Amino acid sequence: MNKHVMNEAIGETRLDRGTQGVIGKGVDRYEGKLKVSGLAPYAYEHLAGEDVAYGFVVPGAIGRGAIKSVDASKAEALPGVLAVISGDKITRASSQPMAPAAQTIDGEVFHYNQPVALVIADSFETARHASHLVKVEYEAKKGRYDITARETVREPDPMPMEPVNERGDFEKAFAAAEVQFDETYTTPSYHAAAMEPHASVAKFDGDTLTVWTSCQLLESGVGQIAAGAGIDQEKVRVHSPYIGGGFGSKLGTSPDAVLSALGAMTVGKPVKIALTRQNVFQATSRRGETIQRIRIGATRDGKIACFAHECDTTNSPGNGFFEPSGISSVFLYAGKDRRIAHNLVETDCLMTSAVRAPGEATGMLATEGALDELADRLGIDPIEFREMNEPEVNPQDDTPFSSRKLIECMDEGAKRFGWDKRPATPASRREGEWLIGYGMASASRANSLMQSSAEIEMSPDGRATVRTAMTDIGTGTYTILQQIAAEMLGLPLDQVDVELGDTALPPSSGSGGSWGANSAGSSVYVAAEAVIAQFAKRLDVEADTLTLKDGHAIAGNRQIPFSEILNGESLSVTGTIEPGDTSESTHQASYGAHFCEVAVNAVTGETRIRRLLTVGAAGRILNLKTATSQCYGGQIWGIGYALEEELVIDTRNGLLVNHDLAEYHVPVHADVPKLDVVLLEERDRYASPLAGKGIGELAIAGVGAAINNAIYNATGVRVRDYPITMDKLLAGLPDDIDAAA
Ligand code: MOS
Hints:
The protein is α+β, with helices and mostly antiparallel strands.
């Protein structure tokens, strides 16, 4: 077993030397041609042309209560219907992603539109039609749907962070502070709204089950499917070779995975289920709505003395996951006395779970707005204010930062953006009807490394194949693993193949929490080191003295093709990366800064984003193009969070009202200006052997606040209740505003 445990900083590596010259380059996607030509099969497209049946979910029509009866006789009588399944296995399938089925009580409905029955038919159309003929009777109970009612409040599980982080005595320090800032921000519930709907195809061969599904973490998916379908984990194989976006909503499997397995078991042939867009919104998972109180005590000259970020969010009974809005408040700014705390308000709505950058994506909408407000009250430039409060070590526990380029990001961004031309006074720059403003915000995303394994097989002709049960959720995993293997082994890119998304391959970290590139990538690094060690042994030289380039090993004045070293045989090694001491001895995060120029229409309150620049630092960038694309995604999502996105909960019954993309608004092209992304050179030698840190979720963090701050600078109106829609702005714009001015 070739294993590297990240117990100490990594020294110089072959990636630093860059002999092959492919690491970091913005090379095209490995699977790009397959995707643009439609040849990359997504979950639902597997078993095309085979004899399969189709499942359609019957969604429940109450928020909370019991199922009294299910009458499937009319549906079953329809020609083409193979089975109608109901009962506890069906209702339990809705409690998948992050949590066990603790919340399910047999015969109970625990959220609106929870699957209550499953129709299997010989065509999709017949299954859908029959689903409307299934008659379900309920006994509705009173449910809890409103976060502000706080009917049941409890401490969440320590997932994904400790809910309470305190140091010193915040209340005492705040009471004594020269300047006291105390404001509350709110964010609505959100949906990941991935383009590819959650879908699965399940097939039995004897008692062995194969499921093709759209899932970010395959190993946990195996466990969920096995538990839900009541079969042995060893008998389940999951494939997820291509994924049309997950953003956390596919960390686990969704109801379609278990339901397709139950369907296939019942009708004796493979079953396909694609959730409708409405099912996706109402029966997978969502981001919790938040209420965030921020208190900051400071001196009049701008030194933060104490910092509190207290957050309420929601989840359903039995689920301890919480939206950790205070995650970056723990370490981002100085302040001796601190209190970062989270409460869970239990509601009977669809479970909440991870959505891209859980914590930062909502928390920094609040904190970065608050920092801007406080800087404004103190009369200090917001960049200067942040730089004055840059901590030297993690202010929570004094651990050193592994690397931190927040100030560099702010300074570089200010220079590129022309921050010196920012209107000094809010509501002071105007172009006809349009009020113009600049805003900025910090970005940060906590970094983590996960255990992950990969195999490299060298074929006798010297080509390499990388194999791991890792996923590519659209982030570029295929491409960066190819680049890492090619750079390490000294192979042209077209000499490296990559196979992913199959639980028969070495177990991997999966894609989540922005850890995928460093974790899976480091396992490829470790496997490549093992290949090189084998080569060196066969050539009787020290591995360190071996230079690898273009399929040749160069040692002294010898240059030997790999095929000669392999001598007609293939060579297969597996490498594993494991997190170690550096996860504890250093504090690791990626950093960035966003800069935004907006124009707000003084008459209508409409906001137009004119420019958006993000400067990021996330350690070694493995592929400039895919990394930059991740940042574009974050910026666009930030526009949505600032101005548009809001999953509306009907507080009478828990219905998610705007449960499709017609009513749940996300940015369209006309909302998005030309985006600029700049990534700084950085190596984080404590984070991983690649010296990289997570970047996927960095750019969404704080970008909505930069927009908010620009809107304030343009209008003098501060909105603390996201999204910043026209009605909220108009309420604050002066009535006598002269549109013709
Ligand atoms: Mo991410 S929200 O952990 O996929």
